[in-house]
Write a structure and sequence with these properties.
Elements (H helix, E strand, L loop, with lengths): L2 H6 L12 E4 L2 E4 L4 E3 L6 E2 L13 H12 L4 H12 L16 E5 L5 H9 L4 E6 L2 H7 L6 E5 L13 E7 L5 H7 E12 L5 H7 L8 H9 L3 E16 H10 L2 H4 L4 H5 L4 E15 L3
Parallel strand pairs: 4-7, 5-6, 5-8, 6-7, 8-9
Antiparallel strand pairs: 1-2, 2-3, 9-11, 10-11
Helix pairs in contact: 2-9, 3-4
Length: about 290
């Protein structure tokens, strides 16, 4: 059994009956006999019932994202995420510190890049990289030695027991606030990273990329209300120097990969090196009334 899965099994719940899970050879099993096999790559699939309607990232999208993240272009975003999770934000009251051996959940983890950076900063914490896509499960299982990978649809319900997660993060990913609130401990925090209208703006028109909804921040506030209170918010905004190869990775790794086919000729028509804006809002929430 994958060692990281061993350390988080006590927090996992059966997606069929919500009972706790126990390790049994190469599977996890609940007291009612529901059993879930651990893949040879080290991740566990806790999806049940009909096929999920969520569109997960493909292996090609994840390859492109890993290549782009590996170039360090989103490192400032990762650093701000780490600071928010660890409670080292610039202002406000981020809440109680994450316990030394606390459990960190990343929803829509993809490559596990942000969770890995958080676990590097919290050397005794444990992590769960949760994503609906099996290719992400394979990547998540090797994202960090202390990260367990779980394939599940957050919109059907998180396969987690109540009050087990000390911090959750969602970076450029959908989220289910009600389920996160249920899984968080009383003093836990939820860090959400969303793009602003300036994010990658220089590429949207020439490459026909999907633009950011101008009402995105208002919609986030509306969906979080009732479950969470905002305790800190800041903007990370900086220029990136991107090559044509970097730009090809940007197009292939995000929502534009689903909605548009960008010809290589359009990327080739861009300057050899181009300045492109990275711009996100990092919001830290605590449970309402906590």
């Amino acid at each position: 059994m994958h060692s990281a899965l061993t350390t988080v099994t006590g927090a996992l719940a059966c997606p069929e009956c919500q009972a706790g899970l126990l390790a049994s050879n190469r599977s996890l099993r609940c007291a009612r006999g529901h059993s879930f096999d651990i893949a040879k790559q080290g991740y566990i699939t806790l999806l049940t019932g009909a096929s999920t309607k969520m569109t997960g990232d493909t292996a090609a999208m994840l390859d492109a994202r890993a290549a782009f993240q590996g170039g360090g272009h989103f490192a400032p975003i990762a650093e701000a995420t780490v600071a928010a999770v660890a409670g080292d934000g610039l202002s406000g009251d981020p809440g109680a510190p994450v316990p030394p051996s606390g459990l960190i959940l990343e929803i829509g983890a993809g490559t596990g890049y942000y969770l890995g950076r958080v676990l590097d900063a919290l050397p005794h914490a444990r992590g769960i990289a949760l994503d609906v896509a099996k290719p992400a499960g394979r990547r998540g299982a090797r994202a960090h030695p202390r990260a367990a990978a779980v394939v599940a649809d957050a919109w059907r319900g998180l396969p987690l027991r109540d009050n087990t997660v000390d911090a959750a993060l969602s970076v450029f990913a959908p989220r289910n606030p009600g389920e996160v609130a249920r899984a968080l401990t009383t003093h836990g925090r939820f860090v959400v990273v969303t793009p602003t209208g300036r994010h990658l703006a220089e590429l949207i028109e020439p490459l026909g990329m999907v633009s950011v909804d101008p009402d995105k921040q208002d919609r986030l506030t509306a969906t979080m209300s009732g479950h969470f209170e905002l305790c800190e918010r800041g903007t990370v905004d900086y220029p990136m120097k991107l090559s044509r190869t970097d730009i090809a990775h940007v197009v292939a790794m995000g929502p534009s990969a689903h909605h548009a086919s960008t010809a290589a000729a359009e990327i080739a028509a861009l300057p050899e090196t181009m300045e492109v804006t990275a711009s996100v809002v990092v919001s830290t929430y605590r449970l309402a009334g906590a």
